[in-house]
Amino acid sequence: MSKEGDHLRALTQRGRDQARLTGERLYTLLNAEGLFPVRRENCTFSYVQSPLTRARQTAHIIRETMFGLYSMEYSDHADRIASGAGASPPESQKAAPEVTPERGSKLEMKQDKGSEDVQANSSSTTSATPDGQSRRWWLSFGSSGTAKKKPLSNEEPRIEEVQETSKRPKCRWTEDLTPELIEAEASEHQTAKAEVIPLGTETRIAEGLPCIPDPDPQERVGRRHPVSKRIAEVFQDIFRIPQGSNLDHVSTQVYVCHANVIRYFLLRALQLDERAWLRLSVAHASIVWISIDHDGYVSARLLGDTGHIPVEGLSF
Q: Domains in the chain and their CATH numbers?
């Protein structure tokens, strides 16, 4: 999609509601797992968005919602780690995995599927994650439509948007704040949020045709141009077998991107034929949770989870 076309696509009100509900759901899931807010030494957290408008808008709303819930639960932001840290977990008795030089930390099938994408060599130089387990959370963006006005900025949200978001959950924003206080509060809010939920952008997970699906419902439409190389390369960077001696370490990465990419990544991570990606369906603002253990074992803990969205609010 061209940059101009992307700007014409923005979240609908349904999409914004979906994103908010997903933020609440994600916070609950991560909090229950002890992965967010980061309260233990052997845990790291990162948050990544696709560069396209509706993915950035979804990522922004989810981030605001999660930070609002965090602010309610942990009022003393500066001491969040010290006050919430429990005893360090016992050292794991598991042996470190043996990784052969030929395979390295790549997560690939042992047999040939006949797919040119899998056979392609990756140019990735990203170092392996030095931990015992990696958890990847993939969030599809909310329902979108043709924008009637300029999309809201992802970096500088309007005051009315912040006030709207703060209604659920309630934050410290109030109607009687002066413009000066609002500006000061907004600056403090953004700084604290950046520390708790650092946001990154990965251009290679932008929407695209990961590979020609099989069966192909549009085989007679004409030649299309999949972006196999770009998406295959970013797969090699993101999905790697954790290595290192600290087997108790858990890295958590949350990605907000597009259903085509998510479905392709899911099948390939599970070592299934990724050309079947079109047979799967994930709803807008749904959650996919993929776990990668230190021995290379991959499991899909959640697949298109939409339990947080009412039936009448679902869209695809």
A: 3-75+109-313 (3.40.50.1240)
